[in-house]
Design brief:
Number of helices: 20
Helix content: 25-40%
Largest sheet: 6 strands, parallel
Structural class: alpha/beta
């Protein structure tokens, strides 16, 4: 829906009724902000993430009052990019959108990375951007750009609202009613109304001076008690409802000639029944969730589950899947793949899903529709036909899986040797134990320690670093909540996203720790998210940073075979000499540096009271 902004010129006193005595401090901007935000709260929005600014001050004051009344949890961030990703994390965890409030100009543009990730990952998000009035656009006015349409390719709905002109004395004016109705429409769109997937919504809110005034007395009164109609003449002819504008924005954009249309097809009432017969695997990508494991169990099919899928558990889980997908006797004989979530972590899976000779059935989820081979069949729901499973096919995969699994369990102490009365035996056992304790950490041991320390009441967030691929290759099955920004698999916003996840999961006294496993460049890219203003709630959050001094992920790509080491370092590896300890302490984080497995295990299992940065030095 695109609502054209009204350009009526500045007005100091435009009211629905004459102002009451003492109402001189009222302002249309504040009344409009109250109508919009209060209705969103009534509808279930519980988090507001706010970056301070002049043009958005009415929204900020209303949000602060709602926090004072206990109606919302308000999170203040000075950086709009951090605010956007914090809201993204809240939406990821709760599946309800947080409202992001910011001022005009570049502040709005800083929300674009989070909006893109929300679009591609199907995460609900509400962007409430304050703006100058339309007569100031395009004429050189300060801090003014064309904000309407800035998010057009990504949003489920966008609206450029009329400038509020009315001081509403009792909350019943049609201006307030319009804003409450728009709040309902915006929330429905963000949650995936109709056939649309969840995603971002942009409401552009232009205000004229005065930019703030007294909070309205009717603030907090339920909308049902403030309802009014535009037709004041009960004896007049009925008013025909105006035709709604077509929704502006995009559901999904196509790419390379292959892709879904912006308007999705209607969902099927009946599930797609998968017949027995074709040699089938279940492939679980990011955000697939437990449904993937359940489908593999019911179908009797091998389960390939990425570490970020939330489905890496169960008896049918395949270990070492990359090598097995390359095996012509296993991967080469696959006839059908049922996909849940968004697979992104291996080239082998991408190659399989791009093969037009393999039947690909993709279960529609919250993110972008999958169609890498151009003939992928999309299904809303899946059922499995009755009949006997192909036990031989499953057995071949599980046998190969056992052979490919990696045992990262630290060696157990030699209890007999340590208690031996023979000095040589006891000294040998002690030396062996010391060797294990002092052994430096590598990437496999690092990801294994974090995986083992995390339980269902915790949250584990993976950054888009080399470590997530190592984890995908070596870690066993375990049913724990996992998050990762794999919609676009960008390096940015990881710390802010994890902070939002931690705040949401620990609300109302929720237990557990949110752990973030990421590389040093991902930390430096989101260093602004380390800042937490003094009045803000501090979540239990552990950043576990594998510091290899740069972007070693590029060492495994084609470029490493053709570029000299000097060029690699200059434009890809990008080495740095940042002291993470000083960075952490400057931002108020507890800091630990660990170099051995025993020290890491102790750091990960010790009680967490606030924010910790655990640095693990790694070789290139």
């Amino acid at each position: 829906m695109t609502t054209p902004a009204v350009s009526a010129g500045p007005s100091a006193d435009v009211t629905g009724t004459p102002r009451a005595e003492g109402a001189l401090d009222s302002a249309p901007a504040t009344d409009a902000a109250a109508a919009l935000l209060c209705r969103l709260v009534e509808l279930g929005v519980r988090h507001v993430v706010l970056s301070p600014g002049s043009r958005s001050q009415a929204l900020a004051l209303v949000a602060a009052e709602l926090e004072r009344r206990g109606a919302v949890r308000l999170h203040v961030r000075i950086d709009e990019r951090v605010a956007g990703f914090t809201a993204l994390g809240i939406g990821r965890e709760t599946r309800m959108p947080a409202a992001v409030v910011c001022t005009s100009g570049t502040a709005v543009a800083n929300l674009l990375p989070a909006a893109l990730e929300a679009h591609h990952a199907g995460v609900p998000l509400l962007l409430l951007t304050a703006d100058r009035p339309p007569e100031l656009r395009g004429v050189g006015a300060n801090q003014t750009t064309r904000q309407p349409g800035m998010f057009a390719p990504t949003v489920r709905l966008e609206a450029d609202l009329p400038v509020p002109e009315i001081v509403d004395p009792d909350g019943t004016h049609e201006q307030s009613a319009m804003l409450r109705a728009l709040a309902e429409e915006a929330l429905a769109a963000a949650l995936g109304a109709g056939t649309r997937a969840p995603g971002p919504v942009h409401l552009n809110l232009p205000y004229r001076e005065p930019l703030a005034g007294a909070l309205p007395d009717w603030m907090g009164v339920p909308a049902t008690e403030l309802e009014t109609t535009a037709d004041d003449d009960p004896d007049g002819p009925p008013v025909e409802p105006e035709a709604e504008d077509e929704a502006s924005g995009a559901l999904y954009q196509g790419g390379g000639g292959i892709g879904e249309a912006d308007v999705p097809t209607e969902p099927e009432d009946a599930p797609l029944v998968l017949e027995r017969g074709p040699r089938t695997i279940v492939l679980a990508g990011a955000d697939a969730g437990p449904d993937a494991e359940q489908l593999a169990h019911v179908g009797g099919w091998p389960l390939i589950a990425e570490i970020v899928s939330g489905a890496r558990f169960g008896r049918h889980l395949v270990h070492g899947y990359r090598e097995l997908l390359r095996d012509p006797e296993l991967g080469g004989r696959i006839e059908r793949v049922v996909v849940l979530g968004h697979p992104t972590l291996s080239r082998e899976a991408a190659a399989l899903l791009s093969d037009p000779d393999v039947e690909i059935v993709a279960v529609r989820g919250p993110g972008e529709p999958l169609n890498l081979n151009g003939v992928t069949f999309a299904a809303d729901r899946i059922a499995v036909a009755t009949g006997d499973p192909d036990r031989a096919w499953l057995g071949e995969w599980l046998q190969a899986s056992r052979a490919a699994s990696v045992d990262l369990t630290p060696p157990a102490p030699d209890a007999d040797g340590l208690s031996s009365a023979v000095p040589e035996e006891r000294l040998g056992a002690i030396a062996a134990e010391l060797e294990v304790i002092r052994a430096p950490l590598d990437r496999a041991a690092l990801v294994d320690a974090v995986w083992r320390a995390t339980w269902p009441h915790d949250r584990l967030v993976f950054g888009s670093s080399r470590l997530v691929r190592v984890a995908d290759q070596v870690l066993p099955g375990k049913k724990i909540p996992v998050h990762a920004n794999r919609g676009l698999a960008g390096i940015d916003g990881t710390i802010a996203t994890a902070t939002g996840i931690a705040l949401a999961s620990q609300s109302a006294g929720g237990p557990g720790v949110t752990r973030v496993l990421l590389g040093d460049l991902a930390v430096l890219h989101d260093v602004g998210a380390l800042l937490l203003p003094p009045l803000e709630e501090e979540p239990r959050l552990q950043l576990v940073v594998g510091n290899d001094g740069g972007g070693t992920i590029f060492d495994g790509l084609e470029v490493a075979a053709v570029a000299g080491s000097d060029v690699m370092d200059r434009v890809l590896y990008t080495p740095h000499a940042v002291h993470l300890e000083q960075l952490a302490l400057a931002y108020g984080w507890e800091y630990r540096r660990v170099t051995t497995r025993s020290a890491l295990d102790q750091a990960l299992t010790s009680p967490v009271e606030g924010r910790q940065l655990i640095e693990v030095p790694l070789g290139r």
